[in-house]
Design goal:
The complex is a heterodimer.
Chain A lengths: L1 H29 L2 H4 L2 H24 L6 H6 L6 H6 L5 H22 L5 H25 L23 H30 L4 H32 L10 H26 L3 H20 L16 H25 L14 H31 L9 H21 L10 H7 L1 H17 L5 H24 L7 H10 L2 H26 L1 E7 L4 E4 L2 E12 L3 E12 L2 E6 L2 E5 L5 E4 L1 E4 L3 E10 L5 E9 L1 H19 L8 H8 L5
Antiparallel strand pairs in A: 1-10, 2-3, 3-4, 4-5, 4-6, 6-7, 8-9, 9-10
Helix pairs in contact in A: 1-3, 1-7, 3-6, 6-7, 6-8, 7-8, 7-12, 8-9, 8-11, 9-10, 9-20, 10-11, 10-13, 11-12, 13-14, 14-17, 16-17, 17-19, 19-20
Chain B lengths: L1 H25 L20 E2 L10 E2 L9 E6 L4 H16 L3 E7 L3 H11 L5 E5 L3 H5 L7 E5 L5 E6 L4 H16 L1
Parallel strand pairs in B: 3-4, 4-5
Antiparallel strand pairs in B: 1-2, 3-6, 6-7
The chains are: A alpha+beta, B alpha/beta.
């Protein structure tokens, strides 16, 4: 009964979306306030219906209702509760439901908190949101019904892929989807602006917080995903340039660019057309990110099962959404006027450079990800593009970006004095040199890119702090005054400093892990000692344990440094009962400056075990950096200017149009 | 008007990309199933030079046709999963049941050499495929990949991705035994 209620709610949501997508849009065109007013209530109703559908499916998972096909295929009664719940979105149909739920959540948020939006803009934005919902609701209902029944019900279910039975991955998809779907708001605002034919500072002020929310979640989602890859896949790596990773990274790059140009539109009334295009492209890449791995176009380790019919439907949706919005862009964007003029050396100029580099970086990732498909289509052979391509193309684009990142915030708007800004970075340059020398000294040399990467990290970190210190006159004025200035500084300024510094921390981690990672892969017997990077790992033994739905071989390593015990590492190798699949659970001890990482492999049948031990310098900094970036975004979001009430006050003081 | 055309550019680019997507879906291909076309076919013709500075000869088609079962493994020093399967290849080579041959895929000779020096060299012969040409002929979609070649030089099995202990026990070893009889 409950699954049928869910199914019914899903169909009702489609009907409501049809109303929400048409009536307010027509109302905005004809100036009918009552028609436009329908947008808000329908958006909220949409959320209620989607929540009903989602909870109905979750209920089926929690009580292990195997008459529901989706549950039978992806769950098992012996699975711990948390993975029964995360199993809801651990499959294609359920994840579609989550995707649309988040879409409805954002739509309802605009409806509830967008009280100060001009009526026509609000009606159009919500109508565009509804168009997106119509597409994906139709897709779900017609090709991927999560509530399909299976009668007679099987004894038990097929279980969730064991790799996904992990706390990190339980929360990764909701985060990632909130990021992807959050960009739909920027997209809807862009489409609404194209229809209205108007983009102004107020528009940018409304778009920015939504983009920032999406960006924060996407950053956290990607970081969580790579962290999972790091500790669960057991190869000591954290980023593999896998298509699934790439498609989540591309909207991040574009979204980051969008975040920065929106500032220019807001403050300087320039770059409007480009910002609109970025908003469209960011969400388009999010759509491609969600769907390309399900369509069967690309193959990946963690792809969902796909079938060609679904693929064609997805392609049709992508063509309608992306093609339609780009056609509208071609038609209407030329009429948008930008007034703000600026000199190339200025804050605006720096942000243009930021955008060019981010867009180029995104294009190289796009090309690398889809190149195998392009080549095959042109009659070429099947190839795969690996890490060497991405390292050779992506990193050289990021390096100048990071160099410019430290300078950009020091440049004033309109026209700037580059020499003056560079003069303020003398201290940063000195620190940069010291950091590079220190890194090379501590690790007794290293590849060229290693000291370059460390220098970049130090440069960016120092640059971000110098800009911040300059604003609050730290060490130039009495401390009390600096404190007062810091409190008076807009939250978005603190946010920027945090986000840039966070990236610097992450770059240091990325560089160090690539340059100085150490590893030992060998067969060890109990009592054997492996030496790595000044630590001794003694294998004490391997025991077999029984988990709730798996059997595990757990090894214990005592880690010693200079004869003193530092840590006990207990990596596991699990074999899950139902799918008979093996997973590795790496054991990680972090010192803050490095991770000690151990993985247990197979027994060799002669009393020995294959063992992989890694020394991962500064790797924890990668996620610490990402966390700082997200924190920066959150601090910036709390800025009064960006709070949803702020634009209204400004609008009221603006003179009424003649 | 050229300015107007500029605004059309994103749409045109997307149309091209969408065209590729459509081809990818419509052309009845399966990206997961590269190999089937080569199974039971003779291994493609190739002649790869040895790895400089390594005391093993290079690899050519003729080396697969000398009446012994062989395992051909594509690897690269930059490939993490290759490292994961490496100890298993070492065991397999040590057991002596099969000739283990290696092809270094798009790798710098010094990197490949250092890699083999560090983790051990299970390969009787190592061919260097620096342009990736031979790998393409084999239908390799990425490293690591492993082929089982029968006594007549035909490809009998292709394994995509890293070998796990269970793959070796359940598939590779039984296949090699049956082919060697």
């Amino acid at each position: 009964m409950i699954p049928e209620i869910g199914h019914f709610a899903l169909i009702l949501a489609l009907v409501v979306a049809l109303a929400q997508g048409t009536v307010p849009m027509l109302g905005a065109a004809r100036g009918r306030a009552d028609w436009m007013a329908l947008a808000g209530p329908t958006a909220v109703l949409q959320l209620v219906l989607m929540l009903t559908a989602f909870l109905a499916l979750m209920q089926a998972y929690v009580v292990s209702d195997f008459t529901v096909l989706n549950v039978a295929q992806n769950s098992h009664s012996s699975k711990p509760l948390i993975y029964k719940i995360s199993g809801v979105w651990g499959n294609h149909e359920g994840s579609m439901l989550l995707w649309i739920l988040i879409l409805a959540l954002f739509g309802a948020a605009v409806a509830l908190f967008g009280g100060n939006l001009p009526a026509t803009l609000k009606a159009r934005v919500l109508a565009v949101q509804a168009w997106i919902a119509i597409g994906f609701l139709a897709f779900t209902i017609l090709t991927s019904n999560p509530f399909a029944r299976l009668l007679p019900a099987p004894e038990n279910g097929g279980d969730l892929n064991p790799l996904l039975q992990d706390p990190g991955l339980a929360f990764h998809p909701p985060m990632l989807y909130t990021g992807y779907v959050g960009f739909s708001i920027a997209f809807s605002f862009a489409i609404a602006a194209l229809i209205e034919g108007k983009v102004d500072a107020a528009w940018a002020r409304w778009v920015r917080p939504w983009t920032l929310v999406a960006w924060c979640f996407l950053t956290a989602g990607i970081a969580l995903g790579s962290w999972w890859a790091y500790y669960e896949l057991g190869w000591g790596g954290w980023w593999f340039w896998d298509p699934v990773e790439n498609v989540s990274f591309m909207p991040w790059l574009m979204g980051t660019a969008l975040l920065h140009t929106a500032v220019v539109v807001e403050k300087r009334d320039a770059l409007k057309v480009w910002t609109i295009l970025l908003a469209i492209l960011t969400f388009s890449l999010s759509l491609i990110g969600t769907f390309i791995v399900r369509s069967g176009l690309l193959t990946s380790v963690h792809a969902f099962a796909n079938d060609p019919e679904r693929g064609l439907f997805i392609l049709l949706l992508l063509c309608l959404t992306i093609g339609g919005s780009l056609a509208l862009f071609a038609l209407r964007a030329p009429a948008l006027k930008s007034d703000g003029l600026f000199h190339p050396i200025s804050r605006e100029g720096a942000l243009v450079l930021n955008n060019l580099l981010l867009a180029t970086a995104c294009a190289t990732v796009f090309l690398g990800t889809l190149y195998p498909l392009f080549l095959e289509a042109l009659g070429g052979d099947k190839v795969s593009v690996g890490a060497p391509y991405f390292n050779a193309t992506f990193l050289p684009i990021m390096a100048p970006l990071v160099v410019a990142m430290a300078v950009g915030p020091l440049l004033p708007w309109k026209r700037a004095d580059l020499m003056g800004a560079l003069g303020r970075l003398k201290v940063a340059a000195l620190l940069t040199l010291l950091a590079a020398l220190l890194a090379v000294y501590l690790h007794r040399g290293g590849p060229l890119f290693a000291w370059l990467g460390m220098a970049l990290a130090a440069w960016l970190f120092a640059g971000a702090l110098i800009e911040w210190a300059g604003r609050i006159k730290l060490f130039r004025a009495p401390f009390g005054e600096s404190w007062r200035r810091a409190r008076g500084l807009p939250r978005s300024a603190h946010g920027m400093t945090l986000a840039h510094a966070g990236l610097a921390v992450a770059i240091a981690g990325i560089t160090a892990s690539a340059a100085w990672q150490g590893e030992v892969i060998r067969i060890m017997k109990p009592g054997d000692i492996a030496e790595l990077a000044g630590y001794s790992y003694r294998l004490e033994g391997v025991q077999t344990h029984r988990g709730p739905n798996y059997t595990s071989d757990t090894a214990s390593f005592t880690v010693l440094r200079d004869g003193r015990e530092v840590a006990l590492l207990m990596p596991e190798k699990r074999v899950y009962d139902v799918q008979r699949r093996e997973t590795t659970e790496a054991a990680i001890h972090t010192t803050g400056l490095a991770d000690l990482y151990a993985v247990i492999g197979d027994a060799d049948g002669r009393g020995g075990w294959t063992v992989r031990i890694y020394y991962e310098p500064l790797v924890p900094w990668i996620w610490a950096g990402a966390l700082i970036m997200v924190l920066g975004g959150a601090v910036s979001l709390s800025d009064r200017r960006l709070r949803v009430g702020a634009p209204a006050r400004r609008r009221k003081t603006a003179p009424a149009p003649a | 008007m050229p300015r107007r055309a500029l605004y059309l550019l994103p749409l045109l680019l997307f149309a091209v990309i969408a065209g590729y997507f459509l081809w990818g879906l419509a052309s009845d291909r399966n990206p997961n199933l590269v190999p089937s076309a080569l199974i039971d076919k003779p291994a493609p013709a190739f002649d790869l030079p040895p790895l400089e500075g390594l005391d093993r000869p290079g690899l050519a088609t003729a080396d697969l046709q000398n009446g012994e079962v062989a395992l051909v493994n594509f690897f690269a020093s930059w490939c993490l999963p290759c490292r994961a399967e490496h100890p298993l290849l070492m065991d397999l080579a040590e057991s002596g049941g099969v000739r283990v041959l290696g092809i270094a895929y798009r790798d710098k000779p010094e990197d490949a050499r250092r890699w083999l020096g560090q983790y051990g060299n299970p390969y009787e012969r190592v061919g260097v495929d620096d342009r990736g040409r031979t790998s393409i002929d084999f239908g390799v979609s990425g490293v690591p990949e492993t082929f089982v070649i029968d006594r007549g030089g035909r490809i009998r099995y292709q394994h995509i991705g890293p070998l796990m202990a269970s793959d070796i026990e359940d598939k590779i070893v039984p296949l090699i035994e049956s082919l060697s009889e």
